[in-house]
Design brief:
149 residues, mainly alpha, 5 helices, 0% strand
């Protein structure tokens, strides 16, 4: 059972790290090419679409499963703890920075240039940090799985 939980945490962490990576290297640069209205309306649509059961299962599941794996895995516990810490940091960044920015974007009105200016650079910077932190969490969980061999 401990291996199943650890591998499930690893898969969920990989999916979420990949999502934030995709935003950093394709979604946001792609939206940046559009005009202000396209950017704002595009992000508003994405912010609604992303809150779905599949995303929430991986986003919240990765740290929860890693946390459970800490207690189930007697072996490479330091790697699991490090992965868990990185995944919790990803949640904290999202809750403290990205979600409030998403909410401000949604309620920002129709002055698209002003809404975009208050959102884009800060959101992108913190998303890159989320990508790095979640990738580090994924890497730590990979190390934990490899250490069990």
């Amino acid at each position: 059972m401990s291996t199943v939980v650890l591998v499930a945490a690893l898969v969920a962490a990989g999916l979420i790290a990949g999502l934030f990576y995709a935003y950093a290297c394709s979604v946001m640069p792609g939206l940046a090419r559009g005009d202000d209205k396209t950017f704002v309306e595009g992000m508003r649509g994405i912010n609604v679409a992303i809150v779905n059961p599949v995303f929430m299962l991986t986003f919240l599941g990765a740290p929860v499963l890693a946390g459970v794996a800490i207690f189930l895995n007697p072996g490479p516990r330091p790697w699991v703890i490090a992965g868990f810490a990185c995944l919790v940091a990803m949640i904290v960044i999202t809750g403290a920075v990205n979600i409030p920015l998403n909410n401000a974007l949604e309620s920002g009105g129709d002055d698209y240039a002003a809404v975009r200016a208050a959102f884009e650079a800060v959101w992108v910077r913190w998303n890159v940090l989320r990508a790095v932190v979640s990738t580090a969490g994924f890497g730590c969980l990979v190390a934990a799985v490899l250490a069990r061999r």
